[in-house]
Amino acid sequence: MREPLKKPRLLLIAPFGSYRTAPFLAAAGARADVVLVSEGTANIVESGLPGLRLPLHDLDACERAIREEMDRGGAFLAVLGLDDWGTEVAGALALRLGLAANPPQALEIARRKDRARAALQAAGVPVPWHRVLALDAPLPALHDLPYPLVLKPVALSGSRGVMRVDDEAGLRAGLTRLRAILGHDERAVWNRALIERFVPGFEIALEGLLTGGVLQTLAIFDKPEPLDGPFFEETFYITPSRLDAATRERVREVVERGARAYGLHEGPIHAECRLNAEGIWVIEIAARTIGGLCARLLRFGTGLSLEDVVVRHALKEAVTVSARAGAAGVLMIPIPGLGILKRVEGLMAADRVPGVVEIVIDAREGQELVPLPEGASYLGFVFAQGPDPTAVYETLRTAHGHLRFVLAPLWRPAVIPAATGATRIATATPPA
What we know:
By secondary structure, the chain is α+β, with helices and mostly antiparallel strands.
């Protein structure tokens, strides 16, 4: 009697709280013997799932524990990281274990907006005018700059801390605000800011897969509403894109050049671009899949999820990817204001809108809600399907129009810079 074929082993690095953990575990569990690595005092490994609880900041300790696991259960075929930090940890550990991976410096460039701009510029990929400012040093002259500008922290994600500034006074106020944001975030270890010329135009996102440096487009999402500031909260993602085939191919080529400039050559990427009369501008390229729950939008061929595709690629399986018929979209529900969430109204009416597939409210009653640029989360997600992108967009807009979020005031002293350079104390309350 023949023994059943042994599944390959996959090491999955999942930082605590990642949206991606559950769908990747489901996809990987069907193809491989999965060992989940996480950390924290109340993480998913300690919730009954097989895996290792390790200090992900200590690569030496992680390597020792993983090699002990390999002695018990056998070698790993691949290491797959979730989220930006998990991807960096996975890349470093893969190299230590002798497995193919993107170089650590390439993964750091993908997380560092300042280094990403420098890499793109050196490779001849179009980038807007930009400058790096040290937040703990005296500021240079700020009046002779190509306003409007976009001010960004070099290492946060999800549009957190990103602000449009139209003049010197706005930039100085924005820098004060950014210092406060970074001062309350232990992850923001780089005390630098990037300023760059605001790029007008139509924004899209590309989901892709690198194989030996060659980029395969999995999906392009249109962002149908203008993202002109003062903050840049993403809301609608609609696929397939309404861009013509030639433009989609040019986007793919520019993003592939950008990924090569970073040093990335393998695995998933999520890129943000702006298109205008001057060309295609790479806003950023992340070495991971799309954020939040947005990957639920994507189904390929016979029903493969985005996570299925990425896992099979990591396990070196051949995957033929074809988009399914119709259109799909998601609304990342924006935070309406600062306050304590009391309740969400209109859910039933929103759910009854034809085309709505699912509504997920992540925020809970009593939770403190903080909008951008200080905030770091969404209220939830609305998913929709339809015959074409326009119908999906209208479905999401209609559903959102039914939702009402009732907030209680949040009384908190806030330091606001005054025009004189002094400060005053204000009390933060939600909008009426």
